[in-house]
Structure formats: structure tokens, C-alpha cells
Batch of 3 targets.
Target 1
Amino acid sequence: MSLKTIESVRFYDYSVDRMNWSVQWQGEPIALSGKSFDLLLYLIDHRDRVVSKDELLEKLWPQQFIEESNLAQHIFLLRKALSRHEAGQKIIQTVPGRGYRFDAPVIESDAPTEEMVLHATESITRITVEEEEDPAASTFPVELPSASSIVRRRKRLALIAAALLVALTAGGWFGWQRWLDRTGGPAVTVVLVPMEGTTGDTVLDSSLVEVLRMDIVQSPYVSLVPTSTVRATLTAMMHKPDDHMTPAMAREVCERTNSQAFVTGNIARTGQHFLVTEEATNCVDGTVIGQAKYEATKLEELPFAMGKLASSLRQKLGESRRSIARFNTPLFQENTASLDALKAYTQGTQKDVEGKFPEAIALLKTATNADPQLAAAYYNLTAAYLSAADDLHGREAIAKAYALRDRATKPVQFAIDAMYSSEFTGDMYELVRVYQSWTDLYPRSSQAWSGLANAQGDLGMNAESLASQRRTVELRPHSQGMLANLALRQMRNNDPQAARATCERAISDHLDGDGIRIRYLEVAYLLKDQTLLQAQRAWEEAHPDAVGVRSIEDQIAMAEGRFKDAGKIIDRLRELRRQQGLSGPDEEMTKHAAVELMQSGDLEAGKKLFQQTPVDTEEGQEVVGLVYVGEIAAAQAAIPAWEAKYPHATMNHLFWEPKIRAAIAMAQHRAAAAAALLEIARPFDTIGRSIPWLRGNAYLAASQPALAEKEYRSVIAHPEFDPTSPYISLSWLGLARSLRAEGNRSGAIDAYQHFLGLWAHADSDNPTLIQAKLELSAM
């Protein structure tokens, strides 16, 4: 049931005028398309409930076939337009699996605010005119006023004066607010050029540029072109990425990236005195927009100087004074920051980007020891630990970062909140809300959009994830990782040709690498394109150190019943990871491969591999492995420990716990109970193929072949969710057995033959293969 339709509403300093089809923020108009305006009105009018996507598609595009991604794009555009309020204030909330809800408190009005103010002004004017009429103009005899009438007149005049004073005060206050909020126009994108001159310490020089970058990017108004995009643009200009960038080159990079300005700087040193200058230049006509200077009397003042320069530049680039005051947290809290902490932080961050995680961890620990209040260093330390598969120390680091989050810039606060939700509490729905707030406030943050895409994907929100990833690539078109993720999201939305085009785009743009080839190999396998598969394997041979594509080859070998080949690939992967200093990830990934071997049918080889290293009972896949090797008591003990330590962990409660309990139930021959437990995990069927396959096995063992058939067919029908999953071919075998149990002989024979075709190159002594052939011969 919808609410009453109202002429105008206000929420969080936004005003919506239905009659004039306008939206304003504190009196300033906001550009909004007609369809986005309709969407906003519909959500406002039905704000008492969650509005489903189907309802929005039906009401906003009646009798039209519109893809859900179109709606997601309009939601994105609407959130982008309504992004000027404070972080944490929700306007449009996504309710996973259900739809959207207008979540802001609404103030209703029958007339626009401007009209109400005008009426009040007219009333004051009319009273004033009436009181100032000339008595001499009257044709009646003039009588002297009585004492009481004089008192009444004085009271009226006092009231009028008070009203005028209130009006003038209000006008002054609103004028002051407008001055604080006044901007130089739309938000701007800027190219940051490395500084000229030196402090005498090259590491400190690069660290100061990083401080300037962090001070600028906390602005929702000014965004910087990513370093990867600048380097790619220089390459396209026939320069080396590390070439010295002249003003002419900077201006061309600015033009090629559709930016509005470029910022150049210089450090001039005289003894222990430093003059630091930064200058913003319009890349269209080359005119100087503004310049900022700061003189430091000692090295320790330089980080503080960069913060002052950033604030001055932001104002000259057009950001409002209120916005600068609100988003102006320095990296270091005082102007006597530890330069050792700054340099170690910068170097550690760079090592993390380069994938040198042990070195990154050592440097970032040095930074936190030098400055225990440096929240950003704890955040980056968390990321390095997690990349090295050291989850225990990663959780400790993010807990420290979270305790210090108020000392960080707003973007770093969002990043800390996201990592805390992901790695410490495990609340995936809160994680999505954090990223949505981040993208609302910083709609041009590729980090925020990429994180949102990943979180949505982990929750099976494939259409929303694709829309978010497309936005990420718009912001970072020259990132191999972003393009690889886009190809993944396109596959998950059953568009392998688009995923293939994305991979080919990356390769043509010289962004080739292991990340892209992982997706390209998956696309080739999904399309069953032998020529394309051969091309990817030729690339593998030319890149013997590529770990990612060999992990996919391991899955393909298991999917085809070639367990001996899978074992050889696993051995090679372990060797490569050790050579690259990735002992932590090696243990974790080896355990995962061992569990897949056991689930796929090679129980002996899987057990042997699984038992080579200690088990981490906080990793769901490893706890499942405990069940397969017969350590059921240890697996059972892990669940209450999880519940006590991570009471809000979404994936634990809704994915891993049902999967572990179901595995235990199957081991105890309680198949019906296992099937019921796996129903809890149904919302996550689209993030992989194992859950519906296991559910099919449980229903089949519980003598419910019709239900088992349905599960196996759902796996087979959607290979795009995980193209190289071994559970797809095994689902053909499960389907054959289900149809046989239902008495469908011809259907069962076709399914058996399809399975044997997929396992045409399987190990001849594979027990699953031998059993399948026996079953088929008995039909």
C-alpha cells in the first residue's frame, strides 16, 4: 500500500518538487534524468516498504522488456546525484534478494519551500506598507491618537522590527551557508605530476607525494587520475611510464584522460629550510588555476606542509570551504610526524602493490612501531597479511586499525570499516552497506566500486555486481585486475562473449598477464572453443611462473577425471608458490585442492595431500576436509568456536556451517538431514557449484530422486557460475543415477553417455569412472 502523494518533500537538506520536476540540495538544482526522477518519486511514495525490482521494472517501464541491469544503472545514477549528504545517512537502501527501500526521514509539505519563504516576505512587506500610509491623504478629520493607541502602535512597530531583524538574520545566515557551500562548478579530475626538486632523500621525496595524494583524495570534489592510468597514457604517448613528465606531457595526459587540470610541484631546499610549491593548471588552455606555497624550517614539517598545500589547492580547484573543513584529516595528526614512519609506510605500501608481501609486512610493522597511531599503516598491514594467507595476524591488525579509525581520512575510514566487516566480524551484508555509503559519498572512487562489486558477487548478487564492476572499469580503464574482474562478472551473468571481448581488450591495451589469462582460460573452456584453449595453453608454456592459470588447469583436470594430472599440477603449483615466497597461500590453496580431490572421487590422493600440513579450523573448506578424512569430532568442535568468536559472520552461518553439518550428516548416513541443512545455503547457489551438487547427492541418498534431479539440472544449466568446476561433470553422473532411480531409462542412458564424454580422458583406473561404466552397462 502506497503512502499519500505529496507535492514536495525534504530529506537531508534535499528538496523534491513534484510539480516542477526539480530536485535541489540546499537550494542548488541537481541534474536528474526523467526516468531517475520517476524512480525517486516511486520510492518516496512507497517508502513504507521494500519495493521489489520486478515492481519497479513494471511500473517505470510498463509493457517494455528491460533488463535488470538497466534498473541497477538508474539506482546508481540516482545515488550518485544524491551524494552530498553526510556519510552514514542512508537514502536508498538495497535489500539483498528483495529490492530497494527509501530509507531517509521525510518532511512533507503541500507547497515548495521557496514559495513559503516568498509568502512570508510578502506578508512583512504588506504590513510595513500599511503602517506607513500618510494620514494626510484621508478626507476625514484627523484625531489625535489616544495614549492606548500609541502603545498599541509602538507594539506593532516593535513586532515589525523584530520580524525584519529575524528576516535579515536568517538571510545573513543562509547567505553565510551558501558562501561556505559555494563551489567552482562540477567536481573535477586532476592529474598529479611527480614533484621537481628534492629534499636530499629520494624515499622521502616519493613519500611526500603519497601524503599529498592521500590529502587530496579525501575530497569528494577533487579526484586524482589513478597512477596506472597515467602510466598507461604515457605508454600510449610513446613514452616510458617512468619518463620525466614535462608540463607539455602533463597537459597531454590531462587531455587524454578527460581531466580538468594537472598539478605540478617543486621542493626548493636552502640548508634546512624548504619551500614547497604546488600549482594547478587548466589542461584545456594552459592557464594557471591557482598556486599554493608553504615554507618549512625543518624536515619534520614537510608532511604537515603537504596537508596545507592540499587544502589550498582543493579550494582553488573549486571545492567549497565546508567540504574542505569536513574532509581534512591529515595522515599524521601533528606537524612533528615521524619521518621514519612515513618512509616505511610508503615503501611498505609499494611492496604490497608489487606482490612482495613479506617485505611489505616488515616495512609496515616498522611504520606502526615508529608511529603506533598510524591507522592507515595498520590497514595496509592487514592487506599484506591477508595476501600472505596469514589470517590470524591480519585480523589482529585490522582490529588495531578499527580502534584508530577516527584518526584516518574519510576514504581510509571507509576502507577500514569494509575490511573490519569482511575479515573481523564477517558480516557481508554490513560490508555491502559500507561500500554503498562509500560510493554514495565518493562516487568516483574505484576502490569503493570494486569492493562493492566483490561483496555483491560474494553474496550472489550477480546483476548488481556487474553494474558496480562496470563503474569500476569506467574509473580505472587501464587496470588489468579491474578488467579481469569485469570478465568474471560478465561470465557470472551468462555473457561469455562479452567476457571474451573484455580479455581481448586488455591484451590489445598491453594489460596482459596472469589475471587476464585466468579469465580467458575460463571463457575458452566455457565456450568449448578448442582453438581458443590452445592459444591460452601456448601462453602458459611461454610463462612457466604463472600461478593463476595453472590453478585453473588443476580444476579442469579434476573436472575431466584426470586426477593424476591434477596431482602433478598441484605439485608444480606448490613449487612455484614456495619459490615466490608464498608459503602461507600455498598451504591454504593446497588444502582447498585436497578437499576438491576428495569430493570429486579421489579420496586416497586427497587425504594424503590434506594431511601434509596443519589444519586451520577457522577456514571452512579445511573443516569440511576434516569430515572427509574421518576427524568428525574436530569438525564438530569448530562450529561452536566460530559462533562464539564470529557471531555475525554471514558466510559462516549461511554457507560453511550448513555445508559442514551436512557433510557430517552424510558421513553418519543421515541423508535427509543433510539435504535439509543444505537448504539453508540455497541463497549462495549462484556463487559456485558445490552446494547444489551436494544437495543433489543428499536427496539421491535419501531416496528422493526427483528432488535430486532438480538440483543436478540446476548445476548443469548454469556452468557460467564456475565454468571449470568439477561438480558440473559430476552432476551429469548424478543426473543419470537420479533418472535411473525414477525409471527413466533413455534419459539415464543419455546422461551417462554425456558424463563419459566429459571424462573421455579420465584416468582408466578412476573408481568413479569404472563404477559409471558398470552402471551404464547394466541399463
Note: The chain has six domains: 8-109, 113-131+152-181, 188-337, 340-545, 546-614, 669-777.
Target 2
Amino acid sequence: MTPPNPDELSSASMLELFRAETETQTAILTTGLLELERGDIDAQGFELLMRAAHSLKGAARIVNLPLAVLVAHGLEDCFVAASERKLDLRQEADLLFRGVDLLAQLARRTEANLLAWETEHAPEISEFLGLLEQLKETRGAPTPTGPAARETRRRAADSRPGPASEATVGERGEGFPAGWEPLLPTAAEARRLEESTRGLAIRKTESPERVLRLTAENLNRLLALAGESLVESRWLRPFADSFQRLKRHQMDLRQQLERLRLALGEDRLPDRAKASLSEFSRQLADAQQFLTERMQELEMFDRRAAHLAQRLYLEVLRTRMRPFSDGVRRFPRMVRDLARSLGKEVKLEISGETTPVDRDILERLETPLAHLLRNAVDHGCEPLAARMSAGKPPECSLHVEARHSAGVLLVTVSDDGAGVDLEQVRRVLVQRSLAAAAAAEKLSESELLEFLFRPGFTLKEAVTEISGRGFGLDVVQNMVKSVRGAIRLNNQPGRGLRVQLQLPLTLSVVRALLVQIGGEPYAIPLSQITRTLKLPRSSVSALSGRDHFQLAGQQVGLLSAHEVLDCGQPGVSDPELHVVVLSDRAARYGLVVDRFLGERELVVQPLDARLGKVQNISSAALMEDGTPALIVDVDDILHSVQKLIAAGRAPAGQRSQLGSAAGRPKRVLAVDDSSTVRELERKVLLGHGYLADVAVDGMEAWNALRSNDYDLVITDVEMPRLDGIALATLIKKDPRLKQLPVLILSYKDREEDRLRGLEAGADYYLTKGSFHEESLLRAVVDLIGEPVT
């Protein structure tokens, strides 16, 4: 059924209103039936079920849909009998869900195709009503349960005519089940229908302004205008600052006037000159006072305007928000039906249903969440026998949660199933020639999990209607990337998988890092930035003719944003490179920008459609002073970088830009809790051409080692928090650092102390008692060679 086009719901047709009513009431019926099946329903729950079925019956009577009346009436009778404990419906959820589905399908018909649908589905409705009649005949007696009892009733229903079996559907209003006469709503039923649809239609006796339909395009334009007003309100601040400068000029002028009065000698001036100077001084003081008062008013207006613009923007933004529950209503039924088809017991819990979510994001979330839940039921939740043998409850638990945290929307899907078998992932990689056996063995857990998002990659051996084609997680990944979000996986083999989608609160606002490139501001969404850092030019090294630097033990390619965006050459005055690290599933790259301008929350302004797709740019925004800033399309940037590298161009490869890596100085970390010893070691190393950093204890040294690259560590033994022996042990156990030489410099000169240090992994043991400059330098040269000049 097509939605109504008029601006107000009061102009909608009766069938359209019935469809809206059915969507609301079938959602209530679905939730109640799921509670009934789990045995969690109470008297209030049965009351909700009865009220929903009764409301649908009354609505169907008003719009003259006799088949819908019969279905709703049959459901209502069952709920009444169950609430009076005359009927046990816990094992009859499948049958009752058939009735809900029939009502939902009937409501989606238009006036043009309603008759054809009724003709086609009359036998199905007749069968359903017959099964309900047979079920209701068991009132007062215990209800046989289980699949065998349900199948017996089904066969009996096929062999005996139900109350609708005599139907011969012809023209509208004719040929309905025997005994059917068109029913007009009673006054009470009309009142109930009116109450149930009060939120969906505007009664003509009420003000038509209470509910208004607004198109998405109009709402987007309104939000854009509110965003512009917010930006414009911020323009008053720099304007007020300029008045402050004017005030200082007036004060300088008044001081100069006083100095002039003193220089001329007021006593020697004629009376007319004295009067002129006094009048000029008075007028200058009045002007200064007037300016001060106006500045105070301007500052007050600035605060009020900024506050009002912020409130206006937030109110308009709230109109785009919908509760998370609007996007997940169909999932409990979907999970229930899917689990039953697979012979599993699964319970879905949804929390954060009232969390507000941007309308556009909520619409895009539905398909990815459906894929994640289907994967969880099919792949994650084990069969009953496997769960029992693992000591788990027979019912697998799925949990969907939505919440706001640190300015982002977090949507989490978790289960207590088997999790991802990493060894199976390795085997599939080798079987499909995606990685060699030796390479697959070296892949970390995070790297293995990344393959799950690869298009066509699946752990299923056979394709089924539910899964096995390997495109579900790829759909999830693409949706998250399209809204500038991120995915985090937390796998616990044997205990379950947790998938977290990190999404922006709204697509209309973006938190971004402002950078300067070629004298112009650019915005890079924070959600797509892996890291930012200031990199000394001496840390850049050449690898295969291109610039690289080390980050967390990995070589990261370094490229100039100037060449990627084709905006000239960068300057070379800054001794440090401002680097933004961007990454995708394949690789990471460091983008060199001129400087960082700070974080901002920007109102996204779409580019004129006539421009088409602008390479490397997604949209634009206005800063506080009205300066336009282009928002970078990170995926496009990464694609451009890969094209440049494939073409044999090394954008940041010129040594004049990023520094010389051929003769990179060797870097040493000196660790000692004595400031005297630390400073002595640092001066000795610097004086002989080595770069030297210091740390006050083992913990500070360990943090430095994980974020920087060193050629040697010189450490004391006795230190707070983490001593030198423990530090050496950590270094030698770390796969990235185990080749790093460690020199222990200690007051302990006993043989057992020296052996203890060497057993911990130290490459050299030097005592402070015999310490002098030559011995330290000789040990350093033995371990890492001469300094680079």
C-alpha cells in the first residue's frame, strides 16, 4: 500500500489509516507472542494482546474488511481463553504468528489489488480459521502440546470443513464465509478505533497543526539553515574582538593626549587652547565609555545569539532522530523463526531501545544488523547437544545494544556461542590460496578476523538459504564505511563473538581534525583517522625508493598531501613532519600535512550536484569565521595513494622534503632513576654522535619503546615500578623488540647479579663501579656500531 501523499494524515484514505493501525498493533502482537512462547507473559501481557486484536477487529469492520475481522476475532478469542486459563497457547505460537502475518499482508493491499489477494488467499485464511476453531474446542481440558499434537490438529483441520471453508470469493462484499454479513462498527468500537489512531490521524475538530507531515528534503534544508545560523552566530566573537582592539586604540590616543598636555605645559597655554584640550579629552572619555557599554551589549547579544542558535540547531536535529526501537522491531520475530528453522533455541535481548538515532543512519542500519544476527544464529549459536556438552545453557543468548558514548553511536551485537575458530580461518585461507601456509601461521588474530569482511569469504562448506556466500559482513563493512564509521571485533573462542559498530550520531555533523595543506584548511573525519603524530625528519627511512617510518613495529608509507591533492609543494622549514595516519583493510599510510589546526565539530554542507564527484573530497563546511573548509573523502584519498604508488610515483620520496634517511642517526634510550646518571649517559652519547632519550624507570621506558624506535637500551637494575631485569625480560619476549640490544649498567658487581641480568636477556652487563666514558662507549659500539656522521 503506498503511503499517503498529502501533507496531513487527516486526508489519508481509510485503508491507509488501517495500514498504519495494523503496523502498530501487529508489532504489539509480535512482542506479546514472543513473551508467550518463552513463558514470560503475565495478565497485563494478555490484556495487551487482547486489546491489540480487538482494535484490529474494530478497525477492519470500519473499513469493511470481513476476512481481517474474522482473523482478528479468532485471535482475540484465543487470547481471552488463555487469559482465563482455559487454553494453553505456549505451544501454538506458530499458528498465532500465521494470523499476525495474514493481517499484515492484508493491510499492505491497495484498493486495486485487495480483491485479487482475498481470492488467492481465501483457502489459506479458511484453513487458519479452522485450526483456530479446533484449538478453541479444547477449552476446559488440558491442551496437548508438542509437534505431534500440532500435526494431529493440522491433519484434522484438513479433513473437516472450517467456518470459512464454504467461502466462494466473488465481488467485494459477496461470497465471504457462510453467515457473513457486512458489519457496521458499534459506537464503542468506533471510539476505540479513534483512540488507537489518535497519534496517526488528525481529527477535523482538532487543530491541524498538532501533527504535520514533513518531507525528508524539507527537513534537510531546515537543518542546513539551522547549521548555517549556528555558524553565523559564531562570527560575532571575532567581530567583538575587533572592537576590543578599537578600545585599546582609544586608550592609546587618550594617553598620547595626556602626554601632549604635559609636554605643552598647561599653565603656559592660552585659555582657548586649554578649553579645546579639555573638551577634546572629555569627548574622548565619552566615546570610550560609549564603546565600553556597546561592547558589553554586543558580548551579551553574542552569548544569547550563540545559545539560541545552538538550541535551534539541536531542536531541528532532534526532529531527525528516531528511537533505536524503530529500526529493530522485526528482529525478535526474525531471530525466532530462523532459530526454529535451524533447530536451535535462541533468545534475543535488545537494550537501548530509546536511544535516539539519526533517521538516515537508522534506515541504513537495518540490513547490516539483519546480516549480523543471521550470522550469529547460523554460525555462532551451537546446536543444543554442543551447548550442553560445553556446559552452556540450552538457549543461546543474542544481545543487541545501542548507546551513545564520547560523541558516537555504539551499536553492539554479541552472542554466547562458539565464536570464530581462528584455526579454521587459517585452513580456509590456505585452501582458497589466499595465503601460503607459512604466512597464514604468522597472521595475528586481528589480521585473521579482517578476512571475514572480504567479499566472498566464508567458513561454510555449503551454501544455504541463510548463509554461505560470504557477502554478509562485506555489506556491514561497506555500510559502516559509507557513514564514516568503524567496526571492532572481539572474539572469544568457545564463548562468543562481539561486533561493535562505531557510528556518528548524525550525518549532518562531523567531528573532524582540521589541517592546513597549501595554505587552505581541510577537514579529516576523526572516525577515519588511525593516529596523528609529529615525526622528526630523522625518523624517515627509505625503503624501495619510497619514504617510510616505523609505527608499532610496522613500516608505514609516507606521502605528501600536497601531491595527493595536487596543490603544489610543501615547505621544508619545520623540523618535524605533521603526519595523519590513515588506513584501510589492506595497508596504512602517513599523510604529511603542513600543520594541525585542531579538532572541530562541523556542519556538513553537500557540494553542488553540478560539480559531480570531486576527487578526494566528500563535502564542505564553514568554520567559525565563515572560512570554507573541504571535508576529505578518506576512502578516495587511499585509492589515490594506491594509484600513485602503482604508477611508480613516490609522492613524498624527495629527501629535501622529508629529510635524509640514508644516514639516520642511531638512537639510544637510557633508563635510570638517578637524574645524575641519566644526564651523564645522555651527554656522553650525544657528544659522540648518538641520539639519546631518557626514562626515569622501567615503566616509562616500556611505554617509550612501544611508541618509538631505538637501536639500544641502557638500563639500571634497581628502579621503582619496573626494574631493569623485568624490563629486559619484557623486551626479549616481545616479537617486535626481541632483537633490540639491552645493556645493563648496575652497581651490583657480583657474579650472580651479572648472570641474573644475562639470563633475563641482557646483551651486555657493565658495573657502575668501573664505569667511565670509554667503557660505556666501547660497549655501545660493540652492540650497535659506530654513530652515523
Note: The CA atoms of residues 684 and 773 lie 7 Å apart.
Target 3
Amino acid sequence: METSAQTTSRIVENLATAVLLFDKDLHLVSINSAGESLLSVSHKRVSGMQPNQIWPNSSFFYEAIQRSLYTGTTCVERGVDLNLNNGHQIKVDCMITPVVVNDAAEEILVELVDAHSFVRVMQEVNQETVQAAAKESVQGMAHEIKNPLGGIRGAAQLLERELDNKDLLEYTGIIINECDRLRNFIDRMLTTSTHPVKKDLNIHEVLEYVVSVVHAENSHKVNIKRDYDPSIPDIKADREQIIQVVLNLLRNAVQEIDKDGQITLVTRIQRQVTIRHKLNRHIIVIDIIDDGPGIPPEIESGAFYPLVTGRAEGTGLGLSNAQQLIQSHGGLINYERKDNKTYFSILLPTEQCDE
């Protein structure tokens, strides 16, 4: 039978909230997996450290933990800047609670939450809702267009048969061809299948295949740098759909950079990540980074919605379809602009479930 202590330890370990426990001498006793992930540290490395050693550039935490221990009161702060040892800075909401035994604080419990996580969740919910509504609206519009389109094409064919002046056939031919092109475009909107057929998949094999395709279809050399995590395991996924998504994003990157530009492919494992209301113990993150100008600011918020595009020749279906395909795998595509670079990040759970 599992003891009470074991049950508590298991619950804490599986929390999405970062939890750190310090003793009364302010030495770290334990940190859960979410804490290791948020702070980019390992339990082995920081065990026994004091707050000013774990966060040497964030004096707030040492002072707040010390004050909470001496006063026996809980401290709650939102939007605190936290400088990590890897040089990155994050903003967190924190709660510092003294563990009181016999009227004396014996330990200090520190809970940390990425302050941007709630915003990201709300963005995901909003994007999912708007995208579904937009897709339904577009499909309804497509059906309405398709019916009279068939009539226009049929009338053009009848007119073609009745024309005595063969020079005018060029114009009926244009009408018929343009009707066919528009019909094919509508069919792509109506028949895109997102139901994945999942098999064992090595994500690096897929990335290398897509890179070879991109190199083959470009006359000039495309500078693509790889930064892969070799420890990433195989996952269950639809190979053709993942290829379609990565190829779409990589082609976009190639179109955005100049001939001397660079694209970087990065793969990493992240732990305790919530995607679309589901907490995933481990996910694969594929970053496609380029030094092009990125999505125009005026359409950035709707980049993943159908028919939104920044290119005159674009259809506005590429990113929307890519998002739907990744969502069918329980994942998500994020866009971010930082350090004058464009980041498209594909988040894929390692433990796949049918959507």
C-alpha cells in the first residue's frame, strides 16, 4: 500500500506548478519536475542551495523567503522578474508560504507559475474558437460559391459550342479554366483531412527529409543550420501530415530570408507543458527560426486563421491547415518574434492520443 508521504510526493511531482521546499536554514530540500523545467535546473544540482545561490541575480526571492520565515506570514507577488542561471529572464507569479509546526515556521514552501502561461492558454482558447468559427464560415461560403460556379462553367461550355468565330474560343477557354482553378481551390478548403494515421516516427528523419526537399526545389543554396537533441524518442504520428506542416513552415522561412540569410532547426524536450487544456508530461518542441522580417504586425494576431496572408500570391490556407494538422496530434504551433528573428515552434506531445 502507498503511504501518505508517498501519495503526497507523487501529487507534488505531477503538479504543473513549480514547487520548492526550503528548510528553516533556507537550504533547498526538494523541487518537483515542474520546478526543474521552469528554472532550467536539476534537483541534483540545486539541492541544499539557498535562494541567493539558486537565483544570484534575483534578490527579491531571498528577501521574501527570509521575511516569510521570520514573520510566519504568506507572501504573494505577481509579475516578478526572475533571472535564471542560463542568462534568460522569465516573469513569474509566486506564493511563499511558511510551514508552521508547533507555532514555529519550520520550512518554507515556494510556488512559482509562469506569468505568461495564463495568457498563452487564453490565446490558445481564443485561437481555437475563432479558427473553428472561421473555418465553418469559409466552408459555408465555399459551398455557396461552388454552386453558381458550376453554372458559369456550364454556360461557357455551351457558348463555346455555339460560337462560329473561333477567335472567341480563347475567351471561353479562359472562363472554363478559371472556373476549374477556383473550384480546385474551394475543394482544398472543403476536403482537407486532418485525421492522422499514426505510426512510429523519428522526428529528425522527417526534418532531414524536408530539408532535402527544400534544397532540391531551390536553385540557390539555402543556409540551414541544425541543432538537434539526439535524446528525443520516437513518437506516434502521421508522417505525411508532419512532413506537410514542416515543409510549409520551412518554405515560408525560405521565402522570408534573403540569399545570405539563415534558417535554424532546433529540437528539444520540455516537461510539464499544458497544450489545449491538457497537461503533458513531456513534449517535443521543433523550432524553425529565420532571420527574415516575420509576419506583418497588422495580421500577426490572425496569422493562423483561414484566408489571412501577407503575400499577394498567397491563399491564406497554409498556416491554418498546418495548425489544424498539429492540433489533430494534440499539439500546437506558436509564432514569436524575438531578437530580430522569427520563431515558429511546433509543440508535439510524446504520448499521442486520438483527437
Note: The chain has three domains: 4-115, 119-191, 199-349.
